[in-house]
Design goal:
Strand content: 5-15%
Distance between the termini: 54 Å
Structural class: alpha/beta
Strand order of the largest sheet: 6-9-10-3-11
Amino acid sequence: MNPFPLAAPERRILRQALACAAIGGLAAILLLALSGWFLTGAAIAGASGAAAVAAFNYLIPSAAIRGLAILRTGGRYGERLLSHQAALTAMADLRGRLFGKLAAQDSRTAPDLAGGDASARLIGDIEALEDLVVRRPSRPASLAAACFAVALVALAGWKAALALAMLLAALPPLLILAARRLTSGPSADAAEALGALRTAFVDYAAARPEIIAYGLAGRVSETIAELARPLDRARAALARGEGAVAGLLAFYGTLAAALVFALAEGGAPIRALALLAAAASVEAMAAFARTALRQASVEHGLARLATLAELPGDLVHRASESVTARPITIGVHRLLSGARIAITGVSGTGKTRLIEALAGLRSPVHPLLLDETPIDACPAEELRGQFALAPQDAVLIAGSIADNLRVARPGITEPAMWEALHIACLDSTVAAMPGRLDTSVAEAGGTLSGGERKRLSLARALLAERPWLLLDEPSEGLDAATEAELVRRLRAWLDQTGTGLVLVSHRHGPLELAAERVDIAAL
């Protein structure tokens, strides 16, 4: 059973695709059958002499054959166009919903899904499900075409029609059995191998500067090749299975045609009609073969997608609204709205972990409260509403500078973006770029320097308009003059908005933003 039902618009489009598929299938059967009758009749008339040729009506069958060819082509085109439209629309919606599920998860309790594995599910597994939607109209249309073929064969006698009906009835379960035996294992292997390969690609892509700097490209290439081998083997096995099923279908078509021809009654034109109708009926049933071959991949994809669909919660897009600041407690220090505190201490003592715990990204190891509630007992959505984080390692998305800023909240205007970039001392840099706000930023920041990535992340945090701003080494990578200007602009912004601040920095300049400093060792 498909746990991802289609919406009403997609179901309506698929019904239209089914009508087109049925028209195309019936036209294909009648086209081949009529062609067999016409050519045989014409040949007999030609062999019988001029009188028979003159009496034979060529025009009407010829026009019918041409019309059926057009109808078959139009039906098949309409089916593909409409079924792909329904599938692409439905899968785009499904990808959005499943990504929302992932984005809504509490980082402290969410399942450990590597980026590559999540990508494999949202891309590869959904493509398998998409194939199921695309092929949905073809199966009932194939059955209608097969029944029509049996009716045509019945013109050559009930024995031939009964034999064809029995053969066609046995074909779908035979195809499903053969496809399952040949593709079930390779499909599972391919899905797992693809997830592992994509995970490796994501990890190695993030570490590409180090790979280049330390000359590890050769070793990484060997690792990637080793991970690709199971995928290649699985796909080769799937290809062999598809070839075997195609061979079975060809043999079955030959058998059906021979049996119908042997049992057919009547003149040569009727026997030719029955022969070609039988051959066309088996060809029409190829839709069951394609569906059966993809069924194992679809089932594995559905199982993997179900683990995402079963995740609790959904990403909720709320309109921008003012959120009341709630007091926080760090150790014994209670901070009211607008307070500014710096967490100090030597490297490795957990300052970044404290910041990330407040943001709801990690479980806390220090005593932290929101109001009177321990941070680890607060829902992730509640923490997201209170804290905006500019982390030590800035995380950017593949898109434009504007795209990265819009992540902060809905409804951000271009003037607001420029104001945030100005506060982050990045506005002049972006203004000098050829695309300005539309300048492309590749995954992980692309060509932006470390300091530029951090300031873009800072601008995004400012645009979030949360009551508390969490800054982890905000001036790292900046020269002294830029750092001083950044501190000055941030101070003015904090004074203007009344936003509270929790800061971690090893540099003296940013520490001037805080009214209180707390050594993490004392917590």
